[in-house]
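Handout, section B. The chain below has 101 residues.
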Amino acid sequence: MAETHPRFPREGLAARYAAHPDGNYRRLAVRDPAATPELIERFSHDPVVWTRQAAAGDPRLPLHRLREALRVPELASSAGANPALPDDEMAAVLDRAGVPA
């Protein structure tokens, strides 16, 4: 849980862990502010679900992949909480879920 602490170091995590064999370390790379949208998209296809979920919730995830992630059951929650999701698409997600207006 230390990684969620506001003072947990984030800089350099992508360079250090992007190719790590353990998915938990690759997930840390998503936290690096220097991680590129291309790297975040790559992580959204990672074999480890936790890494994919971290990428799906990251605002740097390209919009086309964010839309795809909304339709993947194990990514839908993270993608739906992504702050980059356009308002109209968020409204559509809520409508499909039956949330009253």
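Note. The CA atoms of residues 72 and 79 lie 9 Å apart. Compare this with the example in section A.
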